[in-house]
């Protein structure tokens, strides 16, 4: 048995995540296992700065630096052998994003890559989401909803056909920073690239849809329906943000954005005419770990 301990840092618009994974290759079975060792999530809402002010505020810059110092220590304690840190839309759009990257590297040694929407979609697809599902359909529209952007990818025969990133996200909607023209463009793109039919389903990722699937009590392989999403939308909208925390047990940084996430998921489901939405509960951090292993270690380990 051969072990590599790898980590991924996902710097999103709503939160920053550190995933530490034990990658275990068992030669006798010629199979590689990915076992989560630790997951840490800090609700540093960079998008609230980037989308409204155009840059990361001094307060959030300091919080992010402190988070990276903590993540460096956590990785050292766990004995992480290699890692990759990726930042998405909030850092892409911040005028001082490059400065923050330099400060983090100087203070912690962590080098952050600011990636585009296409790379974000590719990393999520690298997470091998089909390994966690038992879909009956042959065609899929993959959707990942973040704080600053929504990534849409058309999949056929488990291969990427076309992908597009839209500036529609939960933190943007929360701050009323979404552009109606972007919604129209997303609808136009779906109509042009997604053919309706019974062989079409949605695969969804993101912290909010993961939470909604957990609240449903369904098995991982059991998809959500529009009927369920509508019922949850009605339920959540009947509570204030504070009541969603006290009555429904949501975290503060989830309670105010989950209704906006629901709007995006429901809209895409409606426009694509898909009947089912699978939720494999994976994300960018899972894809980063798998991609890191495949690029740098698989050939040496799996001889």
Automatic annotation (TrEMBL):
This is Exopolyphosphatase. It comes from the Bacteria. Residues 44-294 form the Ppx/GppA phosphatase N-terminal domain. InterPro entries: ATPase_NBD, GppA/Ppx_hydrolase, Ppx_GppA_N. CDD domains: ASKHA_NBD_PPX_GppA. GO terms for molecular function: pyrophosphatase activity. It comes from Phaeocystidibacter luteus.
């Amino acid at each position: 048995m051969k072990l590599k301990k790898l980590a991924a840092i996902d710097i999103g618009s709503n939160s920053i995540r550190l995933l530490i994974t034990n990658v275990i290759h068992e030669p006798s079975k010629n199979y590689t296992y990915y076992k989560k060792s630790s997951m840490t999530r800090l609700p540093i809402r960079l998008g609230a700065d980037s989308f409204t002010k155009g840059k990361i505020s001094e307060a959030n810059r300091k919080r992010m630096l402190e988070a990276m110092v903590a993540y460096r220590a956590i990785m050292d304690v766990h004995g992480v052998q290699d890692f990759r840190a990726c930042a998405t839309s909030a850092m892409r759009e911040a005028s001082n994003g490059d400065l923050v990257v330099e400060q983090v590297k100087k203070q912690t040694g962590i080098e952050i890559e600011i990636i585009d929407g296409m790379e974000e979609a590719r990393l999520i697809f690298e997470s091998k989401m089909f390994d966690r599902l038992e879909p009956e359909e042959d065609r899929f529209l993959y959707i990942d909803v973040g704080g600053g952007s929504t990534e849409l990818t058309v999949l056929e025969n488990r291969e990427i056909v076309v992908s597009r990133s839209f500036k529609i996200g939960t933190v943007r909607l929360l701050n009323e920073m979404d552009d109606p023209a972007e919604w129209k463009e997303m609808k136009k793109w779906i109509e042009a690239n997604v053919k309706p039919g019974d062989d079409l389903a949605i695969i969804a990722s993101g912290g909010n849809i993961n939470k909604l699937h957990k609240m449903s009590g369904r098995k991982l392989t059991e998809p959500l329906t529009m009927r369920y999403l509508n019922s949850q939308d009605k339920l959540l909208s009947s509570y204030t943000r504070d009541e969603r925390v006290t009555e429904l047990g949501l975290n503060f940084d989830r309670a105010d954005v989950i209704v906006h996430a629901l709007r995006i998921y429901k809209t895409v489901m409606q426009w694509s005419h898909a009947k089912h939405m699978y939720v494999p509960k994976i994300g960018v951090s899972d894809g980063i770990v798998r991609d890191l292993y495949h690029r740098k270690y698989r050939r040496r380990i799996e001889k």
